[in-house]
Amino acid sequence: QVQLVESGGGLVQAGGSLRLSCAASGSIFRINAMGWYRQAPGKQRELVAIFTSAGSTNYADSVKGRFTISRSNAMNMMYLQMNSLKPEDTAVYYCNYDLQRFGVRINYWGQGTQVTVSS
User: Fold this and answer.
1) Could you tell me where the DSSP H helices lie in 1-119?
2) Is the pLDDT of residue 81 over 90?
3) Rounded to a whole number, what is the distance in angstroms from the first to the last CA of the chain?
4) Half-sphere exposure of 85 (CA within 13 A, CB side)
5) CA 51, CA 98: separation in Å to the nearest integer?
């Protein structure tokens, strides 16, 4: 089993910064992808930033140039540095590990951390 725990959310004024962390425990190997998603009230969960299996990164257009995803060499920590935050960034942020286990693709999610950006 894999457990993911996010931290670092909070209330910040527009233009401010936050750094989210995701701590992963358990058997982490055969990673298809790992990334950050967010869900605002009344909206569907959306991709924010992701590491592909090749190690490249992709970002949602709305966060390009403002957010940076990073991770530890052991892949057991993942971060999201969020700068120049806007009120529309307000959401619950989730980390996700997309793993291949015994030939089956399994997605693991954290419990989420709230980010609120005031105008």
Assistant:
1) none
2) yes
3) 40
4) 23
5) 10
pLDDT at 107 over 90: yes
**Is the CB of residue 53 less than 8 Å from the CB of residue 34?**
no
Q: Is 74 exposed, middle or buried (0-12, 13-18, 19+ CB in 10 A)?
A: exposed
Tally the residues of the chain: 119
Residue 33 has pLDDT above 90, yes or no: yes
Show the beta-strand stretches assigned E in the chain: 2-7, 10-13, 18-26, 31-39, 46-51, 57-59, 67-71, 77-82, 91-101, 104-109, 113-118
Structure-block tokens of residue 95: 């980390």
**Average pLDDT for 12-24:** 98
Q: What is the DSSP string of 1-19?
A: -EEEEEE--EEEETT--EE
> Do residues 63 and 88 make contact, with C-beta atoms less than 8 angstroms apart?
no
